[in-house]
Amino acid sequence: MTCSSSDPKGNPPNFTIPEPLINLVRLLAREAARSDFATRCNGEDPEVDHG
Question: Which domain of life is it from (predicted)?
């Protein structure tokens, strides 16, 4: 009977994400959050019950 280790074998893949792509993703996430916040603050969400 043999024991197998759960440790990864070899090196993990080495890749880099270009900085402009990271900045674009951050910008899109920020704009999506602003839009969501504005929608909630304007009372356009039909699930909000103020009464």
Answer: Bacteria
In tens, the pLDDT along 1-50 reads 566 666 667 776 777 889 999 999 999 999 999 988 888 887 655 555 55
Residues 6 or more apart in contact with residue 40 via CB below 8 angstroms: 48
Torsion sign, CA atoms 30, 35, 40, 45: negative
Say if residues 27 and 34 touch (Cβ distance below 8 Å): no
CA distance 42 to 46: 11
Rounded Cα gap, residues 37 and 40, in angstroms: 5
